[in-house]
């Protein structure tokens, strides 16, 4: 089952190191002011240092390209995961500066799932997650798999990132049924918000790739 894994909501370099040793392909940290998992600047640099050249995404609720590039310069980010409306020129500018751009689409019904295909052009991937009122991800709420399949079909050849309530005991079935290119997990591998559980990270990866070597 060939699918990339992104461990998101990181706030500690030690957790990033565990994710890398376990085989995660991408890492993520939150730059949304006031978010439960908002990362501090020093920790952000530690996470990038621990990433061992794997892409590290910053999660933003704004499409202010200047602010995102400032975070990139301070922390060493490889990409931006963007919530909300996204102007085409912003994605183009970030990509022209060497950043990967993932656009977030929040889905609550079939029409929203089918509209995911409209988000693909101009970005490197589209992250599809359930729409939860008053929250931007990290709620532990799973995406209805029928909506996930619709979004997958709508995206066609564009890369799809599946997020929302994935856990070690559910991720393999979700991947088999929906067929994303990447799965994104945060709360499903945590002890508390922003503090990852090494055993859960390993179990999540093992559910997709089989037993991992002893740490």
Explain how this protein is built.
This protein is of the alpha/beta class and 215 residues long. Helices cover 36% and strands 21% of the residues. It is built from eight helices and ten strands. The protein has helices at 13-22, 41-50, 65-75, 88-96, 110-115, 145-155, 171-178, 198-209, and strands spanning 4-7, 26-30, 56-60, 79-82, 100-107, 125-130, 160-163, 182-185, 190-192, 195-196. The strands form two sheets. An eight-stranded parallel barrel has the order 1-2-3-4-5-6-7-8, surrounded by five helices. Helix 1 (13-22) packs parallel to helix 2 and helix 1 (13-22) packs parallel to helix 8. The two termini are 22 Å apart.
Write the SSE topology.
Blueprint: E1 4-7, H1 13-22, E2 26-30, H2 41-50, E3 56-60, H3 65-75, E4 79-82, H4 88-96, E5 100-107, H5 110-115, E6 125-130, H6 145-155, E7 160-163, H7 171-178, E8 182-185, E9 190-192, E10 195-196, H8 198-209
Parallel strand pairs: 1-2, 1-8, 2-3, 3-4, 4-5, 5-6, 6-7, 7-8
Antiparallel strand pairs: 9-10
Helix pairs in contact: 1-2, 1-8
Rg is 16 Å
Sum up the overall morphology in one term: globular
Measured as a percent range, the helix fraction is 25-40%
Q: Give the ordered list of helices and strands.
A: EHEHEHEHEHEHEHEEEH
Strand order of the largest sheet: 1-2-3-4-5-6-7-8
Going by helix content, strand content and strand pairing, the class is: alpha/beta
Could you tell me the strand content as a percent range?
15-25%
> How many helices in DSSP terms?
8
State the end-to-end distance: 22 Å
How many strand elements? 10
Biggest pleated-sheet summary? 8 strands, parallel, barrel
Quick check: average pLDDT? 92
Instruction: Give the uncertain stretches in residue-range form.
Output: none
